Amino acid sequence: MKRLKELVEIAKPSLIISVGDIVSSHILEHGISLDVLVVDNKTMRKPIQPIVVDVDKTFYASNPPGAITDEAWAAIRQAIEEKGRTKVIIDGEEDLLTIVTVLSAPAGAFVVYGQPQVGVVVVKVTEEAQERMRRIVDLMEDSSKS
Fold first, then answer.
1. Rounded to whole angstroms, how far apart are CA atoms 107 and 97?
2. Whose CA is closest to 27, among 48, 49, 53?
3. Which of 88, 105, 140, 142 is most exposed, with the fewest beta carbons within 10 Å of its own?
């Protein structure tokens, strides 16, 4: 988290968005301000105590494991566009929603997620990062047609 704090101070991202309960909790504990939190109140698919944080608005969406629903896309887009701090609570699983978040975030935003047993990953939203995510979505769509 020390490195993330340094990155934030240097890059001054347009938004900081976290995907995942544990990473969101750690970011907040280290005094880094989040604009959007995407959580499912679980870690490693086991229920945990929900993160308590003041938000201006909360959005809800269903998203089953291994999927990306239109409902989740809409909730994340709305949360990112909203002024103030927002939270998206997913009924299901938020793991693949990092893809949606990178595609929905403005250029210069940081999308931060946890990689279990590895650490924290920071994606700076750029055209290149969004193009990589679009390719992943295209591959997912192609495989669902088979």
1. 18
2. 53
3. 142
